[in-house]
C-alpha cells in the first residue's frame, strides 16, 4: 500500500548536503572571484538592513538631543567656542609653517608638498567575527574608493580598504593580526614595523634591537616606506619597552592613537596615484626645466665681461704721458695686436681725447 505523503530524504542526508555545499561555497569564495558580483549585488540589499538596524540608535540620539537640558547645551557651546579659538590659532600657525616648508623646498629644488585630498565616510557596520578587526563604511567603488586606500579618524590612522562594493567598503584595522605598517619614531626617526595583536588597544613593534633608542611615550608616525600609507600621520604611542639581556630584540608595545572602537566618522585619504618611478621622472623633468630656465639669462650677463677687460689698460695709456715713449708704444702695440675688432674703437677713442700729436708720433716711429 502506497503512503499518502511521499517521504523525502532524511535529516542527516539534508544536513550532509548543506555542509558540503557550504564548504564548497567557502572554498570557491576564498580561491576564486566568481562570487564577487553576487556579493556586490547582495551588498545592495544588506545596505538597507544596516540602515534599518541603525535606525533605533539614530532615533534615540535625536530624541536625546531634543530633550537635552539648557545648562548642558550652554556648557557645551562654551566648550566648543573655546576649542574653536584654539583650533583657529593652531590653523594659523600651521598655515605659516606650510608656507615656510614650501619656500624651503623650492630653495632646495625639491617638489612642493601637495596636501592629500580627503573625503568623510561613516561607519555603518562591524565584522561579527571577534578574531578579525574589520569595519564597513558607507563609501564604495561608486564614490572613487580604491583598494589599499588609507583610512584615518581625527586622532590618527585606522587602517586601509581591503574590499570594495558599489556603495560600501570593508576596512582592515591596524590592530588585526594580519596587518602591519612601517612606522618611525617621531623623536629620532628610528624605523620599525608595527603589527596588530588582535587587541583593539595594542600594537607591537617587531624585531626592534635591544639597544635601540626608543622609550615610553614616544610617538610613532607612518614612514611612508610601504608606498601605501602617506608619511607623517600618527599611528601609536609607545606604552611599554621591555629589555631582556638574553634576547637580541626588545619587546615594545604601543597604543593606537586612533579611537578604533569609538570613532564613527572617518576620513578617506586620496593620495597621489602615480607610481614612485613616475614621481621620480616628473621631479627630474621639473628640475631640468628649472635649470634650463635659470641658464638662459646667464649668457648675456657674461658677454660684456671680456670686452670690459681690455678697456682697463687702454684707459691707463693716456695717463702714462710722463713716462718714456717706448713703454706707451709697447702697450699700444700689444693692445693693437691682441685686441678684438670690437675692442679697437674703445682703445682709439680714449687715446685721441688728450692730444692727437703723441699717437701720430708713435705711429711714425713704429713705421
UniProtKB/TrEMBL annotation:
<keyword id="KW-0133">Cell shape</keyword>
<feature type="region of interest" description="Disordered">
    <location>
        <begin position="275"/>
        <end position="367"/>
    </location>
</feature>
<dbReference type="Pfam" id="PF04085">
    <property type="entry name" value="MreC"/>
</dbReference>
<feature type="domain" description="Rod shape-determining protein MreC beta-barrel core">
    <location>
        <begin position="124"/>
        <end position="269"/>
    </location>
</feature>
<dbReference type="InterPro" id="IPR042175">
    <property type="entry name" value="Cell/Rod_MreC_2"/>
</dbReference>
<dbReference type="InterPro" id="IPR042177">
    <property type="entry name" value="Cell/Rod_1"/>
</dbReference>
<feature type="compositionally biased region" description="Low complexity">
    <location>
        <begin position="296"/>
        <end position="367"/>
    </location>
</feature>
<dbReference type="GO" id="GO:0005886">
    <property type="term" value="C:plasma membrane"/>
</dbReference>
<protein>
    <recommendedName>
        <fullName>Cell shape-determining protein MreC</fullName>
    </recommendedName>
</protein>
<comment type="similarity">
    <text>Belongs to the MreC family.</text>
</comment>
<dbReference type="InterPro" id="IPR007221">
    <property type="entry name" value="MreC"/>
</dbReference>
<dbReference type="InterPro" id="IPR055342">
    <property type="entry name" value="MreC_beta-barrel_core"/>
</dbReference>
<dbReference type="GO" id="GO:0008360">
    <property type="term" value="P:regulation of cell shape"/>
</dbReference>
